Amino acid sequence: TFQALEKAVYPRLLKNRKSDAPIRIWVPGCSTGEEVYSIAMSLLDYLGNRANSYRIQIFGTDINEEAIKKARLGKYVRDIAPDVGRARLGRYFVKTDEGYQISKAVRELCVFAKHDAGSDPPFSRLDLLSCRNLLIYLGPALQRRLISLFHYTLNAGGYLVLGTAETISDFSELFAPVDRKHKIYAKKSTVMRPRFEFAPGAVREPVLPEMPARGLPTRSEFEQQKEAADLLILNQYAPSAVLVNENFEILHFRGHTGPYLEPSPGVASLNLLKMAREGLLMSLRSSLEIARKKNVVARKESVRVEADGAPRFVNLHVAPVKVPGSKQRTLLVVFEDVTPPERAKAGAHARKQGPASDSSEQISSLKHELATAKAYLQSVIEGQEASNEELRSLNEEILSTNEELQSTTEELETANEELQSANEELTTLNEELQHRNQEISLANNDILNLLSSMNLSIVILDRDSRIRRLTPIAQKLLNLIPADIGRPLTDIRLGLDVLNLDQMITEVMETIRPKQLEIQDREGRWYSLQVRPYITAENKIDGAVVVLLDIHDLRQRTAELGQRTAELGQSNDRMQEELLLRRQAEDKFRILFESAPEAILIADANGKIALVNAKTEQLFGYRREELIGNPVDVLVPERFREPHASYRAGYSAEPVARPMGKGRELAGRRKDGSEFSVEISLNPIQTREGLLISSSITDISERLRVAQQAQQGAVLEERNRLARDVHDTLAQGLIGILLQLDAAEDAIDKRPEELRERLASASRLARANLEDARRSVLALRPEDQEPANLIHSLEHFVQSVRTARREKIEFSVQGTPRRLTSEAEENLLRMAQEGLNNAIKHSGATKIRVELIFAPSEVRLRVVDNGKGFSLESPGNGGFGMTSLRERATQIGAQLEIKSSAGKGTRIEISV
Ligand SMILES: C[S@@+](CC[C@H](N)C(=O)[O-])C[C@H]1O[C@@H](n2cnc3c(N)ncnc32)[C@H](O)[C@@H]1O
């Protein structure tokens, strides 16, 4: 084990150790010290030359005091050489008569003390604790306590060594094994509080040599009388004597001691040695030491004493006084005067004679004194050694007690800290209580103020129905006065008659259920009387609360309210019905709206979409959530968005039901960006929130496609017409001309007048033909330049007709001209041509007017003549021209108005 310590423990203990930190080792249950000295020797071996640089303290303790005494001496009688080894024997032992003793140097490192490991405070701040073969003698509870205690006493990084048969049992959280075989464990750091307490009063006083108390033991009265008699005899007849304690302090004088003792100068003292007269001291001291130490009677014969210049001879007897059962030891010193009278005289004579006296007697006396002095010196030396030894053990005791005191102090410090923290807790608690107190007094004030300012009549009763508190209103209503506090409520005649109030209160307190009663006072006013249980915070019933509420007005108002509620119920029913009807209407509207074949979109005046139907979603490819709340512009191709905004503004200024952008090409834009032609009709809806515009949108792409086809058909038709025209007019005319010219040829020589007439006729025919041809051509090519411009084409056409005719033909444009769709412009031009041709051909008018008017919301074309007119009813009059006019008007969505009466001319108006 000790070799294992040298290997595993000492190197780690010394690593990074400050040189001034002592190496502290404790060996509890050390018995006669072998374990302690073995540790000391192994540590010294390990340290070698460095041993002097460390302070080493090894404490060996045991409950057995005898064992400790032996340990302290370090003497081993048997032959220990085989156990210790020669080298160590030479280094750490000294040879004695009986065997070997541990050298002084090693012994000085070790401190031995009596110590009960089970109850005395432990040594602390230890680096190593070796407790071998002690735990096995102890019960499991004490074993556990000690292991815990050992953990506490060790420094961090400290080690514990146990005996081979011992373990740390279930304390693996406190110690980690370092060497399982030799049972060496390292302390684990833990924040655990030690599971032990030092036994109260366990600190021992150092064992000091017992001192007898000064004074005599108490005695019985009889004994005292007996002693008084003894004293008398002693004083009269016995030699003088003194009784001293073990410190040679005089306790009692007997007889005449003046010749031998005298008080010494200086501080008053009863010490026998200090009081001894000249010549007596040495003999007295050696006799006292012998008697005290050996417990025998010590004698000195004929000791010479110088008393007041005369020598006296005295026999000294020092006897230990033994009192059975008493611990106190006393010594009786008897002075027996043996001075022969002649010696006394001779002595007096010799002093008179001077120093010339018997020298041989003097020499023998001096020899005697010298022997006495020697013996005395020897006893002093022995006494000194003994007291040195005693002092050493005393010192060790003090050291160990000091250690114990230190660990107790540490424990006390911890306890003090705990007390301090408890004190702090108490201070906090106190503050909290003060704070609570303040809160309670505040709450009390609040309650008082609340009760006095409340317009409620409240009476608080205790368990015996005695009034505890009441509000001012309660005093007034119930005819109570503050002096009624403390009286039972039911004993007082109240201002209100309440039947069985006491019973009601008792019931409430018993059942913990509140009760309520409506009562009337003598004037017929109504009150609600409520009795509630008074429940404390601990859920205990501690009385009742009586509350009186004036409900007179409330009752009246409740009645009124009841009536109102009934009325409201009726009107509510009506509203419910109305709501139902509305819901039905709304459902119908929704069905209609959603199933409409056209896309219907409702937007506000700013163009923000409010509602769309399923067709709109389908037509534009948006879901309705994507449209509602967004500007209607998303559905308009980008290039039309700007004008669209101004149209919308114009419409909002003059909101009437009408088609949108009459005659204009309208297009919608789908979510995917594709465009399609639409026709839109607008309807204003005036709502409380403002103007809403409902647009019904029709996809006319298909219709346009059909119309285009129709137009192509019309071109064919036009060609036919042209062919017909050429055939009917030009060819016929040319044939006529040819016939005239043939006839003229025949008449050249024979009938010159006929010739002239034929030529003239041919010339007329040719002119008329030319005119027809021109018209046909014009009808075929309405404009010289592309693209068509309605104003320009009309002007050109009127101009060309005007030069070939006598009639007065006028053309005018009003308003700010703007472009229409090419289809609208084309058809308008054709209708103007048709109207003008008809007027020229059939009306015989002298004045024809063609007008083009650009109004803000439409464009109007008028052809007016002052010719013979016709009846609209007679079927022949309309002719092909009227039919074609109607067809064209329908094609561009225009309105056609024809006014004509016989002799009053004709007026044709087309609005788009
Ligand atoms: C078997 S000896 C062990 C001696 C030594 N530790 C060894 O291993 O060589 C046990 C010692 O423990 C001591 N002892 C017993 N109970 C004790 C206690 N409560 N406090 C201190 N020592 C005790 C006994 O007096 C005895 O000397």
CATH superfamily of the largest domain: Vaccinia Virus protein VP39
Straight-line N-to-C gap:
126 Å
The total number of structural domains is 5
Bound molecules: S-adenosylmethionine
Strand order of the largest sheet: 6-2-1-7-8-10-9
CATH C-level class of the largest domain is: Alpha Beta
| CATH topological fold name of the largest domain | Rossmann fold
Can you describe what's shown?
- This protein has 23 helices and 31 strands.
- The chain is of the alpha+beta class and about 900 residues long.
- Helices cover about 45% and strands about 20% of the residues.
- The chain has 5 domains: about 1-185, Rossmann fold (3-Layer(aba) Sandwich); about 220-395, Beta-Lactamase; about 450-550, Beta-Lactamase (2-Layer Sandwich); about 595-700, PAS domain (Beta-Lactamase, 2-Layer Sandwich); about 785-910, Heat Shock Protein 90 (2-Layer Sandwich), CATH 3.30.565.
- It is elongated.
- It binds S-adenosylmethionine.
Summary?
The chain is an alpha+beta fold. It has 23 helices and 31 strands. Bound molecules: S-adenosylmethionine (SAM).
Keywords:
912 residues, alpha+beta, Rossmann fold, Beta-Lactamase, seven-stranded mixed beta sheet, six-stranded antiparallel beta sheet, 23 helices, 31 strands, 47% helix, 22% strand, binds S-adenosylmethionine
Task: Please write out the topology.
Layout: H1 2-14, E1 23-28, H2 34-47, E2 56-62, H3 65-73, E3 75-76, H4 81-84, H5 86-92, E4 93-95, E5 100-102, H6 104-109, E6 110-114, E7 126-131, H7 140-153, E8 154-162, E9 175-179, E10 184-187, H8 221-237, E11 240-245, E12 250-254, H9 272-275, H10 281-294, E13 298-307, E14 310-321, E15 330-337, H11 341-353, H12 359-453, E16 457-461, E17 467-470, H13 472-478, H14 501-511, E18 515-520, E19 526-535, E20 541-550, H15 552-595, E21 599-604, E22 609-612, H16 614-620, H17 624-627, H18 638-653, E23 658-659, E24 667-669, E25 675-687, E26 690-699, H19 701-750, H20 752-780, H21 790-804, E27 808-815, H22 822-843, E28 847-854, E29 859-865, H23 875-891, E30 895-900, E31 906-911
Helix pairs in contact: 1-2, 10-12, 19-20, 21-22, 22-23
The structure holds S-adenosylmethionine.
S-adenosylmethionine binds next to α2.
